[in-house]
Structure formats: C-alpha cells, structure tokens
C-alpha cells in the first residue's frame, strides 16, 4: 500500500479510494475531513489525473497553500502548483481574468474591496440625491451583498415582493434603485466587488455555453472543503461545473455551519444527495485532534441542538486536563489572566507562543488581550483586523497603481486625482463626474478631454498634467515590472516626499507603510512563480494588483512566526492549536443578545461555540467577566448558558481576581519584557526612495505567503524533460548569452541574455522544446553544458 494510504483509518481510506462519482463526507470536527480531501487529491494525481483537471475549493487561501504543500510532499514533485486550488473568490477571480470579456468586462477589471464598494455606494446615493445618513452605505451594501449571494439581480430585487416589503418596513424603499445604479456604475468602471466574483462567474457559466463547456471539461474532479458554509451562488456554480463529469466530492460538518448570516444554508448538505444519483456517503467518527475531555464537552454541548445530523465522535487520544472555566471581575482582568496563563504554561509545559490562540465572539474584545500581552512582552498577531492593505496611505498608493492599469477605475481616480494636492478642487471633481455621466464616458476620459468641457486656467492645466502623467505611467507597463513602475509612481507623484515631510509619529508610520508596500512589491517581483524550476512568471503590475486585491490578513502566513494568535471564532474555522482560550462566555455576548430570539439563531450561536472549543488539541480555557465595558458603559453579565450545558466532571472552575498572584506574575512579565526587548523592531531592507537605489537583499525562501506565487499558474504547454542521468545543478554565476544549458524541467536550451540585478539575475533562455522562458538563476535547477 502507498505510504499516504497506510496512515488513514478504514473510512478515510474508503473516501480517498473512491475516485469516480459523487462523494460526500459529513463528519465532526477534527475527524480528518481536510486531511482526506488533501490525500484524495494526491491519490488522483498519483494515478494519472492531471493536476490541471482538478479544482479544489477551500475556506482560506492559507488552507489552500497548506494543502498544496502537503500534496507536494506526498508526491515528491511540484505538480501540485498546477492545481486550481483556493477560495471560491480567488479561483473565480483567476478564471474571470481570462474570460470577463465574454460578459462585457475588461479582463483587467478592478476588484473592489468592502471599503471601495461602500464608497461607490455612497457616491451613488448622493448622485441619486438621497441622504446617506438615512441610507447608510454599510446597511445598503449588506442588502445588496445578500441579494447577490442569493442570485438576486437588481431587476429581480425590484420585483421581489418580500424584499420590497422588508425595505418598506425599514423605511428604505429605494434600495432596489440604488442597487441598480451601483451595479451599473461598477460595470462602467470595469470593476467587480467581492460578491461579483461569484455572481459574474455564475453569469459567465450560465450565459456563455462555450465558457461553460470549457470549464466543465477542464474540471474533471471537483472538491469542496467546509461545504456546510457554501451559499446559493457558490452552490449553483459548482453544480454547473460538475454537471459533465459528476466527479464531485464535498466535505463538511453541519454542526459547524456558522455563516447563515451570509446566506449559507446547511440545506446544501441535504440537497447534495438529491442532486446526484448514487452519492457515496462516508462518515468519519474518530477524532484525532483533541483530548478526551475536550471532545466530551464538545459533544455534550452540540447535542443541545435539535437540528443537527446525529453523530458521536470518539478519540484514542489521552484523557487530558479538565477544561478550565475561569471567572474574572472585569474584561481587563480577563485579559490579564490570559496573558499570565500563557506565561505560566510556557514555563511549565514549554509551549511556544504559536501554540496559543485566543478566540472571541466580536472583534472589539481583542483590546483587553492586546494590552495585557503587550505589557507582558508576549508577541502576538491579530488575524483579520485592519489589515495592512486597508490603511489609507497604502490604499492611496494602490489607487495610483490601479488607475495606471485600468483607466476605467473611477474609484481609484477619485481617490488620487487631487492627492497629493495639485489644485483640482472638489467642485472640479464633481463636474467631472457629471460630465462623465452625461457623456457616458469614463471619468478619466473626461479628464483627458477637460478643455472640451469648459475647464480653464490652472485647473485645466492641472488636469492635463495629471492625465499626461497617468498615460506616461501606463506606457511603462510594457517593459517594466510592478516594482519599477511603483517606484516611478512614488517619485513622480511626490507621494513619498509628501509623507516624508510629515515628521509626526503618525506621519512617520505612514511613510514606513508606503516603504513597506514598495518592499513587498519588490520581494514579489523577485519571487519566482515556482521555486522548483525558477520560472519567473508574470511580474507586471496587473498581476501584482490581482495578488493584492485578494489578500486578506488571515491569509498571511503567520504560521511560522512565533506569535500568539488572536482572532474571531469565525476566522478560526478549520484551524487547530495546542492551547485555546475562548473569552467572553457571557449571556448577551456569547450567545449574542442579537441571536437569542429564535431557536435557529440560538443554534447557530451554539455551533459557533462548538467550533471554538473543537479548535483545541491539548488545553482549553473558557473565561467570562462579571462586568465589561460595552458601547461605552459598564455592563454586568450572567455567565453564558453554554457553560451550564457542559458536564461538570470535565470542568475545573476557578476565580481569577486581582491580588498577590497577579502581582507576582506581572513582575515576572517585566523580566520577560526585558528579555524580549527588540521584538518587532523596524523592518529590514527597506527601499528608501530618497537615496535612489534600494539596498540589495538576498532572496529569502521564508517570505510570507502573500508574496508567494499566486495559487494557480496559467496552464502552459510544457514538454516534459527527462533530465540527463546524474543531473546536478551547477554554479550559474558565469552564465552568458550563447551558452548551452540543461534545465531540470524545460530541457536543453541556449541563453539569449542575462539581465536583472546582481543579486537576482534572470536569464532569458530559448529552450529547444519549450520556447523562450525567463528563469531566476537563484532558484533554477540548471547546469551549464
Ligand atoms: P475541522 O472540522 O475542524 O475542519 P477536519 O475534520 O477537517 O476538522 P483535519 O483538520 O483534517 O480534521 O484533521 C484534524 C487533525 O487530525 C489534523 O492534525 C490531522 O493531521 C489529524 N489526523 C486526521 N486523520 C488522521 C489519521 N488517520 N492519523 C493521524 N492523524 C490524523
Ligand atoms: Mg477541516
């Protein structure tokens, strides 16, 4: 038996070996669902299925990266990079990049993040002469988003009796009108919001038979993790894609369905067996993740839900410690208790920072933990907070890069047309918007033709200069990579100089953020798409922007950083940690006061609680405070009803108040603080535009994953080369044009030229059987003949 099969239990193996026909695995937390999915992909590939024909949809990009890595390890080759693997959003964005023209969008469409969407919606509301205090952009956006995820377009929305009733009751009858105007504006701007990545994918497949046929025949095998959380549009897309081959495998756990507020319905699990004939159903019942105590408590809690598919998990793991249930006086003391306990555990049981996770119901709870961790000098990171790419100065710079790539992008244009200040005032900008609407042209075109529309004097000159500058940047795209273009932008727009001039601490931080952005672009351009063979791939600005727009903080590879992780329970799905603290287990907070009015809502809160406790492998703490500040007021809370649902014999209940013990611990904290001083210091290798040339930096394999090659590589026809016997990569430092070489994968070829910088040389090689390729010599498996 292959090695990868021998480590599986019988049911897991059965699922992996089921190759053809629909397959569904419904099983509890930690039973190896994700492991089975990963192994199954490896098994398909080991048996001759081409990676290009496999589509795997995961919950986070991080999960996708991990899966690829594991498959690579099992198969001991780099074929996994050819898989279509990632989140629904990232995979569909990739496909739409190649196909959007079929449905009237430019292929280099811009992706609007939530912030962008809300600002466009706000503009639309104002253009329609409505009040954005009443039609709050975030509320309107939520309605539109929910509609899109339920496959309800603007026309259907206007005609839907229930939606109209709801909006009328909320005294916001014009949402349908705003939705229509917003959709039109996005289309005109050549932009898609996050929801459009799903909606337009559906539109593509359902209205373009050629595209449907192409992707149906391509994706011979489809796999979906966390199936319980797919929503209507995701469900419909996968159904369309799977219709030809019906080789679709879904794994999920109805007890972990926690996204009904986003339109996910566990109906999808029940529906699956009706959609396909002969569905093979596999149940997994052994849990490999948690101690017996943790599992017992989790099972008991979820049994209080009436609506779950019955299943009982068991484990061979050790009994483990009891679950610590800890009461504190306030949220600050709760934070302090957690930080103290982390230190204590590290001393007693030799855990590293990264073995700990602190989970909470709402983002605002993170503050108390952060404060205590900082005081104790414990390194930590927040997943899913205000991410780097959401910061104003970073978004400004990115807006420049976006308008350079896509001049239809009105949001980007509005953001930077007068930043840094160049004398194009608010009235002029409003006039440009009106002109663009009247003439049905893009705003940028209105800028370029400003003279025609009555702009005069200084404003006209400023507009013309601006248009010339953007057009100039655009010409750079032909032969410059993303970093070189970005550096030019930083210089010519005075953006960097402006930030550098601000000497306040905030100004300095902003300056550093822009430098950090440039650093990250540089690293990205110097990272090959594939470490194995060193092939460069597309390092243009457009490719970089796509990379960035799908980046979220939770995807950043913090796995290897030794930090305590803080995140909401929603963000923790699918993950596991040695030690887990779940905080704020109080009535009105967890379950949330907003979710106790119906059984359905309460059961979803309980599922969320189940997800939280099943993240723990060894140790689990559940904490609650008697009182905490919420919305500016000190609020007294009862302990959560969920605490009463857990069997007493597995609990160890304590009170952690102030007093001597905490005093002692915090003294120890200062000692640790001293030891840890220096952690998180300034970033190295910064690109400093003031002095021109960036300092050289050695390529570094351990870079964060958002800088790593995108999850999917373009299908390219590669003639497979069987390397000569005893192929050993040689020192390529003396490589010159004209030399003959052998590449481990691409075969024999002749060097056309060597370019790039001294620390990152790139060779253009004409391969006899694979055409011309750019190869990064730092990574290439190449020998000079
Ligand atoms: P969740 O519902 O939380 O997503 P899951 O069902 O996807 O959980 P996995 O994450 O795949 O579970 O597996 C949980 C842990 O158990 C992982 O550390 C995995 O490596 C381990 N595991 C799974 N199956 C086996 C096995 N047969 N032998 C040893 N370890 C296993
Ligand atoms: Mg999983």
TrEMBL record:
SUPFAM superfamilies in the cross-refs: P-loop containing nucleoside triphosphate hydrolases
InterPro entries cross-referenced by the UniProt entry: DExx_box_DNA_helicase_dom_sf, DNA_helicase_UvrD-like_C, DNA_helicase_UvrD/REP, P-loop_NTPase, UvrD-like_ATP-bd
Reaction(s) catalysed by this chain's protein: Couples ATP hydrolysis with the unwinding of duplex DNA by translocating in the 3'-5' direction; ATP + H2O = ADP + phosphate + H(+)
Enzyme Commission numbers on file: 5.6.2.4
GO molecular function annotation: helicase activity; hydrolase activity
Family, per entry: Belongs to the helicase family. UvrD subfamily.
Protein name from the UniProt record: DNA 3'-5' helicase
Organism annotation: Parasediminibacterium paludis
Organism lineage: Bacteria, Pseudomonadati, Bacteroidota, Chitinophagia, Chitinophagales
């Amino acid at each position: 038996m292959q090695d990868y099969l021998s480590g599986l239990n019988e049911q897991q193996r059965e699922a992996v070996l089921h190759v053809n026909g629909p397959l569904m695995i419904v099983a509890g937390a930690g039973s190896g669902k994700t492991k089975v999915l990963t192994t199954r992909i490896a098994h398909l590939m080991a048996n001759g299925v081409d990676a290009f024909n496999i589509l795997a949809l995961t919950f986070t990009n991080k999960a996708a990266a991990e899966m690829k890595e594991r498959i690579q390890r099992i198969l001991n080759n780099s074929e996994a990079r050819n898989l279509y693997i990632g989140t629904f959003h990232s995979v569909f964005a990739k496909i739409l990049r190649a196909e959007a023209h079929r449905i009237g969008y430019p292929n280099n469409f811009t992706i609007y993040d939530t912030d962008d969407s809300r600002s466009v919606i706000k503009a639309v509301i104002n253009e329609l002469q409505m009040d954005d205090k009443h039609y709050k952009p975030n509320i309107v956006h939520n309605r539109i988003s929910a509609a899109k995820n339920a496959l309800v377009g603007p026309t259907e929305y206007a005609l839907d009796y229930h939606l109209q009733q709801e909006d009328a009751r909320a005294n916001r009858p014009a949402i349908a009108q705003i939705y229509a105007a917003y959709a039109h504006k996005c289309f005109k701007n050549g932009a898609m919001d996050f929801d459009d990545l799903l909606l337009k994918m559906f539109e593509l497949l359902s209205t373009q038979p050629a595209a449907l046929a192409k992707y149906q025949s391509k994706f011979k095998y489809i796999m979906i993790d966390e199936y319980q959380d797919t929503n209507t549009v995701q469900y419909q897309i996968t159904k369309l894609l799977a219709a030809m081959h019906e080789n679709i495998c879904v794994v999920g756990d109805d007890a972990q369905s926690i996204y009904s507020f986003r339109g996910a319905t566990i109906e999808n699990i029940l529906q699956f067996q009706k959609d396909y004939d002969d569905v093979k159903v596999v149940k997994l019942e052994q849990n490999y993740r948690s101690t017996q105590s943790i599992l017992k408590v989790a099972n008991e809690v979820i049994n209080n839900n009436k609506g779950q598919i019955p299943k009982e998990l068991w484990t061979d793991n050790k009994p483990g410690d009891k679950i610590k249930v800890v009461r504190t006086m306030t949220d600050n003391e709760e934070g302090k208790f957690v930080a103290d306990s982390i230190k204590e555990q590290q001393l007693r049981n030799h855990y590293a920072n990264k073995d700990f996770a602190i989970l909470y119901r709402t983002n605002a709870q993170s503050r108390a933990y952060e404060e205590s961790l900082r005081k104790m000098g414990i390194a930590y990171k927040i997943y899913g907070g205000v991410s780097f790419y959401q910061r104003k100065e970073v978004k400004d710079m990115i807006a420049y890069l976006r308008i350079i790539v896509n001049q239809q992008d009105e949001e980007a244009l509005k953001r930077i047309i007068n930043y840094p200040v160049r004398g194009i005032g608010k009235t002029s900008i409003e006039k440009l918007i009106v002109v663009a609407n009247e003439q049905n042209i893009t705003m940028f075109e209105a800028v370029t033709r400003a003279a025609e529309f009555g702009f005069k004097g200084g404003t006209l000159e400023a507009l013309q200069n601006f248009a010339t500058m953007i057009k100039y940047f655009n010409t750079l795209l032909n032969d410059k990579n993303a970093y070189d273009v970005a550096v030019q932008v930083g210089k010519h727009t005075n953006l960097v100089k402006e930030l550098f001039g601000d000497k306040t601490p905030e100004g300095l931080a902003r300056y550093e953020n822009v430098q950090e952005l440039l650093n990250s672009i540089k690293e990205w351009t110097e990272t090959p798409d594939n470490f194995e063979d060193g092939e460069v791939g597309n390092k243009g600005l457009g490719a970089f922007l796509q990379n960035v727009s799908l980046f979220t903080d939770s995807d950043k590879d913090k796995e290897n950083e030794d930090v305590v992780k803080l995140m909401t329970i929603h963000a923790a799905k699918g993950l596991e940690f040695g030690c887990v603290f779940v905080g704020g287990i109080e009535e009105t907070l967890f379950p949330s006061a907003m979710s106790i009015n119906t059984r359905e809502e309460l059961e979803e809160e309980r599922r969320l609680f189940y997800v939280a406790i099943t993240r723990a492998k060894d140790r689990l703490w559940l904490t609650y405070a008697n009182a905490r500040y919420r919305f500016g007021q000190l609020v007294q809370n009862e302990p959560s009803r969920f605490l009463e649902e857990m069997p007493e014999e597995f609990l160890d209940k304590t009170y952690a108040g102030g007093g001597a013990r905490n005093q002692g611990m915090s003294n120890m904290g200062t000692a640790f603080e001293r030891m840890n001083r220096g952690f998180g210091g300034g970033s190295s290798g910064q690109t400093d535009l003031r002095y021109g040339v960036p300092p050289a930096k050695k390529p570094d394999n351990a870079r964060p994953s958002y800088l790593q090659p995108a999850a999917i590589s373009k299908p390219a026809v590669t003639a497979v080369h069987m390397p000569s016997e005893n192929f050993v990569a040689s020192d390529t430092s003396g490589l010159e044009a004209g030399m003959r070489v052998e590449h481990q994968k691409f075969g024999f070829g002749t060097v056309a030229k060597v370019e790039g910088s001294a620390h990152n040389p790139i060779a253009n090689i004409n391969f006899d059987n694979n055409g011309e390729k750019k190869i990064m010599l730092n990574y290439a498996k190449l020998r000079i003949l």
